């Protein structure tokens, strides 16, 4: 995979490597992608909390019912529904 960076971002990556914080540009990019994943997860969690506070949730009678719902949704997603 090749990635093109703006000159400013390339300079930032090189500075991180030169500082000794990272051994390579690849390490810098992997850490940046992990940070992006964490940010996305935080946003999803905050959205879920907001939805619960607004009463936008479904209660299940049992863990089994909840598990069946997860399986149903997963299968539908795999089928592209």
Report on this model:
The mean pLDDT is 96. This protein has helices spanning 7-18, 25-53, 63-78. It has one domain. The radius of gyration is 21 Å and the shape is elongated. The chain is mainly α and 81 residues long.
Which helices and strands appear, and what pairs or packs with what?
Layout: H1 7-18, H2 25-53, H3 63-78
Structural class: mainly alpha
The largest pleated sheet is described as: none
The ordered string of helix (H) and strand (E) elements is HHH
* Gyration radius, in Å: 21 Å
Number of helices: 3
Helical content band: over 70%
Supply database-style keywords.
81 residues, 3 helices, 0% strand, elongated, single chain
């Amino acid at each position: 995979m090749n990635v093109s960076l703006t000159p400013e971002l390339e300079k930032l990556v090189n500075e991180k490597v030169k500082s000794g914080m990272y051994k390579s540009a690849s390490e810098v990019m992997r850490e940046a992608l992990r940070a992006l994943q964490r940010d996305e997860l935080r946003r999803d969690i905050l959205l879920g909390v907001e939805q619960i506070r607004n009463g936008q949730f479904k209660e299940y009678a049992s863990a089994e019912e909840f598990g069946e719902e997860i399986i149903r949704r997963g299968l539908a997603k795999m089928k592209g529904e």
